[in-house]
Design goal:
The chain is of the alpha/beta class. 38% of the residues lie in helices and 22% in strands. A six-stranded mixed beta sheet has the order 4-3-2-1-5-9, with helices on both faces. Strands 12-11-10-13-14 form a five-stranded mixed beta sheet, sandwiched between helices. A three-stranded antiparallel beta sheet has the order 6-7-8. A hairpin with a 2-residue loop joins strand 11 and strand 12. Helix 7 packs across helix 8. The longest helix is centred in the C-terminal third of the chain and has 25 residues. It is globular, with a radius of gyration of 20 Å. About 2% of the residues have low confidence. Bound molecules: zinc ion. The site of zinc ion has 6 residues, from loops.
Amino acid sequence: MTAVVAAVDVGGTRMKAALVDREGREVVTLTRPTPAALDVPGALVRAVAETVAALREAAADLSGHVGPEDAVGRADPTAPEDAVGDTPEVVAAGVVVPGIVDDVRGVAVWASNLGWRDLPVTAPLSELLGMPVALGHDVRAGLRAEVAWGAAAGSRNVLFIPLGTGIAGALMLDGHVVAADGWAGEIGHVVVEPEGLPCPCGQRGCLETVASAAAVARAYAARTAGRGGAPLDAEAVAGLVRAGDADAAAVWDHAVTALARSLVMMTTATGVDHILVGGGLAQSGETLLAPLREAVHASLTFQREPRIERARLGERAGCLGAACLAWDVA
Ligand SMILES: [Zn+2]
């Protein structure tokens, strides 16, 4: 029987889950909407337990019935047939959530878009599932997965910075992912423009109000307002940058400049020599990375220059990171 762990990434809108073997292969995957009202005591633990049960069912019969809202698949076509043919044994579970997470106490401390405060996860979920459970932060765990199975293999001093709806960050220094009781890595809320736009966190001009995928889309919409065009996402703005559109280029430069300044600050303060850019904005590839490398290079004097690359695991990073945490406690 193949030993696997159950991995669940609880996001603002979707829960991504998988059964993952020792080599990081997703034997079964499942995506379902994140239920409402997860701030009610017990709701998060119940939602995760139900997801783990659904993963087990899906593993027992991949062609069997699943809920209409579930998307189940066999994610990795390179996984050996026997990993699918027998029913995998789930030996531990890993859960990752956004926001402030106390991995040591196993408590989801705070998440702005999910509304919870101080939810105990590890102890009640472990009791419910009858197996060891680990809780972690989605981006810190994603960095663990990039180190184990992705673009950061062999690196010891890494910054992982997904640029999506918001911006979070995770740091590995001297081979250790830094958590600081859950408070490390909030690079998206470092103020880069004190007179800038208000941020949901209460400050003005946070990096994520300038350089997240959502911010780029908003800035382009604001700049071209009144011209009657349909709203574009960041990927479409990147396409216009490549096509030589002046408005898109101005918005893009603004974001790249702010991002480069933040990366130089992080490089100087922490000594990272490898930066993995992820999230929606990174899908533009070299449209983002080439000017970003140039701007960072131009700002450095004595510092060790970091290698700046795209993260490899994409939107699976959090789920695979949850698997890394689960294997730690299995
Ligand atoms: Zn902020």
